[in-house]
Amino acid sequence: MTKVITYGTYDLLHFGHIRLLERAKALGDYLIVGVTSDTFDRERGKINVQQSLMERVEAVRATGLADEIIIEEYEGQKIDDIKRLDVDIFTVGSDWRGKFDYLNAYCRVVYLDRTDGVSSTEIRSEQQPVRLGLVGESPILNKIERESRCVNGLEAGNVYSINNKYLSPELQQADRQAPSYDALLQSSDAVYIISAPECHYDQIKQALTAGKHVLCESPIALDPQQWHELKALAKERNVVLMDAVKTAFSMAYYRLRLLAKSGIVGDIVSVDATCTSLVDFDPTQDANRSLYEWNSICAWGPTALLPIYQLLGTEYVHKEIITRFSGKSQSYDAFTKISFVFPHAVASMKVGQGVKSEGELVVSGTKGYIYVPAPWWKTEYFEVRYENPQNNKRYFYQLDGEGLRYELLSFFKAIRTGHDFSYVDDNISLAITQTIADFYSRRDMTII
């Protein structure tokens, strides 16, 4: 029996895929089809895949051409599969000609001509692009504009800002500047918002009312009632409202969370997260700066709270907020520490834009702990450590676009499919909003 193996993503399965599978099957008696996993696709830079792994597997299965379907999960797996499955022929499309010649050492390699004019990329490109308006006063807008180019079907459009000094020369061009927020909404299908948190509620409500999808830097509101109102409005208008916390979409952080929840360090007893930076801010010099400056709790709070709420849940029994305000300002905190007590664990977060500390994340458990070095919120590496150092294990994951790229991809997929692809669940989003609301109401707070 001659065994043939081929690999692919098989996103939006089309006639070209089927024709290639038919010709692959004709090369032998038994066809094995490797479908690339979501994470491996991301590692290879294919981030615009619109269907989940299981949807793609089922589409291949439905053709009736595959005798066996396997999942491709890592670089170098092809050699392992060929040897393990006793494969005689490896085949792939001719656009990869020469790329897999090294496999001739293990089996026969055949390149098949592809069907002209048919590809998943072309199918996706034929769809009307989603025009993304940019709102706010932050250099992150430049990154959003850049990373949006990596998401096929998403197009960064105009920008509305009350202070464009942070914008790149490209975004500062006159033809990219919207004269008003209303004008921006009229020229956009969706908006990304990173304006001052005090502006979020009104801007989100206006966008949702106009039928626009919204991706907003967390917190999306400063009051839980406003949060509920915005979520209800998004549901009523059948549009997407998603929190933007880029760390949630980082591959390393996502894998860390899965490992921690799986019990790799035993029962989680403590989570400690620190996020700090030093920024030049003097509220006594320019009162207007408060219109577009983020204080420490809003700038870093959602990121620092993320692992606490995602690993321990949101049902804490006690919390204490300790804050140091900057100068005479009673809204701009130079430093804030929040301690939590959960039924079976404790947690702490430290954030500051006027205090510097080691920006690390430590998840402590009954069997060991997970250590993420600074800056943990955009790390490519973490380590699981045990009592015996010989058992320690390091994990490395490529970080593309600081998580922003996959955040935009998830937002885009939610728009296209109507399904929720956010890595920040609503209960987490609401808990972040409630915690920041407690800060502003001085609940459970000690001022130092």
Would you mind describing this structure in some detail?
The chain is α/β, with parallel strands linked by helices. 32% of the residues lie in helices and 25% in strands. The chain has helices at 15-25, 38-43, 53-62, 77-84, 120-126, 140-148, 169-172, 181-186, 197-209, 224-237, 251-261, 296-312, 404-417, 426-440, and strands spanning 3-8, 30-36, 68-72, 89-93, 108-112, 130-136, 154-160, 190-194, 213-217, 241-244, 268-276, 318-325, 333-341, 346-352, 361-365, 368-372, 381-386, 393-396, 445-447. A nine-stranded mixed sheet has the order 18-17-16-15-11-14-13-12-19, with helices on one face. A five-stranded parallel sheet has the order 3-2-1-4-5, with helices on both faces. A five-stranded parallel sheet has the order 7-6-8-9-10, with helices on both faces. Helix 9 packs parallel to helix 10 (224-237).
Describe the secondary structure blueprint for this structure:
Layout: E1 3-8, H1 15-25, E2 30-36, H2 38-43, H3 53-62, E3 68-72, H4 77-84, E4 89-93, E5 108-112, H5 120-126, E6 130-136, H6 140-148, E7 154-160, H7 169-172, H8 181-186, E8 190-194, H9 197-209, E9 213-217, H10 224-237, E10 241-244, H11 251-261, E11 268-276, H12 296-312, E12 318-325, E13 333-341, E14 346-352, E15 361-365, E16 368-372, E17 381-386, E18 393-396, H13 404-417, H14 426-440, E19 445-447
Parallel strand pairs: 1-2, 1-4, 2-3, 4-5, 6-7, 6-8, 8-9, 9-10, 11-14, 12-19
Antiparallel strand pairs: 11-15, 12-13, 13-14, 15-16, 16-17, 17-18
Helix pairs in contact: 6-13, 9-10, 12-14
